[in-house]
Structure formats: structure tokens, C-alpha cells
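Exercise 3.2. Students should predict the tertiary structure of the chain below and write it as C-alpha cells, then compare their answer with the key that follows.

Predict this chain's 3D structure.
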Amino acid sequence: MKIYQFKTNIQCSGCEAKVKSFLEGHPEIVRWNVDLTNPGKLLRVETSNLSPQQIVELLQQAGYKATLMEKARL
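Answer key:
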């Protein structure tokens, strides 16, 4: 399992709802969440096989930007 964190331009719960179908609809995304209280609006994605670039592209399809912040391992 891979865990990635991204700085995003997701600003509110409405924005979060817009990306939900793109992230939850993908079979290789196990879990995700956005910390809206963090100034960087950090998105944390747990995936079985996606690359950071593929996650960035999913967010772009939803109309948002993301920059990889760090990678952690389980």
C-alpha cells in the first residue's frame, strides 16, 4: 500500500464533494481525505497501485490542482 500527500486548491466541503466521485470511483484508491483546516488543504491518498501523477491527473479531471508533498510507506 502506498500513501501520498498533496497540497491542493480544494477550499471547502463543496469542493471536496466534487472530487469525491473521481477518487472514490477509482478501484485502486483505498482511502482518501482532505484536511481543510490545513493552509495547504492537504489531500492524503492511500492507493494500491497508482502513481502520484495519476492521482494529480484525477484531480485535474475534477477541476483541481495538486502538488505531491511527501510519500510515506505502510
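Discussion points: The helical segments are 13-24, 52-62. The first helix runs from residue 13 to 24.
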